[in-house]
């Protein structure tokens, strides 16, 4: 035998020479849930180790993450039910605590990169990503609301906007609104191939944002479809998206791969709440070794072709890297 693949696995040193995929802390984006108020750090029951933070408690957490090499955070607001309405007015209100938090974070840590969420659901009394009328989600009528939200977030200092709503045409609409207002440098990470998935459960618990009626299948993609992701990607790219995201990640590695092969802009993948929760739960039961399974999970997403990964494990992964455990 001239070729023995096992020779490249014979020792840790050689295995590292042969290693094809690496994940650095700065390739992970850490999702954080924000709550209005003071001195709040409330654990999300279905996503242990993750919290709804008030800004005062969040600041030291962000600082700790920055020290670990995490550069980017995606923020989601948990909005009080009394502030929600059908048209998501609070999403761009001057006194919005989420916008205030973005501003404070950017002032306190100018080097940190802040990504936002652009969608109506955290602010909508219907719990949908778009405007609801007679049980239907209206597409074109939602776009101006998303644009107002985008401008407000850009004004607050956001670096990257993350439209997670799946309305048609929203990337171009937002890009135009941003540019007209002088925000040509604000990036858009489009939730390009976002599937109507059962894996968003813990996230909706964290934000109390589950739809009040119906489901999201008229705007989020059918899990059975792959080629359709290329249509979404083509549109988002031509409308000015800077990153194309696939969400969820693990059950959609083939989608990450196909976007990576067909588009030259960075591909992002969202390792969503339910994917993380199932690993945490299995580890709690003693059925899986968390410290081994978690990096393996993230590696599969990176290997599939994601340049950046949004994951609730960002901090733990960065700590393990620092401690030489990976
Ligand atoms: C909604 C939104 C969702 C997530 C991010 N933005 C849930 C949904 O579409 O209902 C899910 C993220 C996660 O599960 O971690 N705009």
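^ Assign residues to that structure.
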């Amino acid at each position: 035998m001239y070729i023995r693949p096992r020779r490249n696995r014979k020792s840790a040193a050689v295995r590292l020479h042969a290693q094809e995929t690496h994940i650095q802390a700065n390739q992970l984006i850490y999702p954080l849930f924000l709550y209005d108020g003071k001195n709040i750090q409330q654990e999300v029951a279905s996503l242990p180790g993750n919290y709804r933070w008030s800004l005062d408690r969040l600041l030291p957490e962000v600082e700790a993450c920055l020290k670990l090499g995490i550069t980017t955070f995606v923020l989601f607001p948990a909005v009080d039910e009394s502030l929600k309405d059908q048209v998501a007015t609070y999403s761009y209100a001057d006194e919005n605590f989420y916008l205030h938090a973005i501003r404070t974070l950017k002032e306190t840590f100018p080097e940190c990169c802040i990504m936002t969420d652009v969608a109506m659901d955290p602010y909508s009394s219907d719990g949908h990503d778009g405007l609801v009328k007679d049980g239907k989600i209206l597409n074109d009528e939602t776009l101006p609301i998303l644009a107002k939200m985008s401008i407000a977030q850009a004004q607050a200092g956001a670096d990257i906007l993350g439209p997670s709503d799946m309305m048609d045409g929203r990337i171009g609409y937002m890009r135009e609104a941003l540019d007209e207002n002088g925000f040509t440098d604000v990036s858009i990470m489009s939730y390009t191939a976002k599937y109507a998935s059962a894996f968003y459960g813990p996230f909706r618990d964290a934000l109390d944002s589950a739809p009040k009626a119906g489901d999201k299948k008229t705007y989020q993609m059918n899990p059975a479809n792959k080629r359709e992701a290329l249509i979404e990607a083509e549109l988002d790219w031509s409308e000015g998206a800077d990153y194309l995201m696939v969400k969820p990640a693990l059950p959609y590695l083939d989608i990450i791969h196909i976007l990576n092969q067909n588009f030259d802009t960075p591909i992002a993948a969202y390792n969503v709440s339910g994917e993380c929760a199932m690993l945490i739960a299995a580890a709690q039961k003693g059925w899986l070794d968390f410290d081994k399974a978690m990096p393996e999970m993230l590696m599969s997403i990176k290997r599939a072709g994601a340049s950046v990964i949004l994951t609730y494990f960002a901090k733990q992964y960065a700590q393990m890297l620092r401690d030489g455990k990976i």
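The chain has one domain: 23-322.
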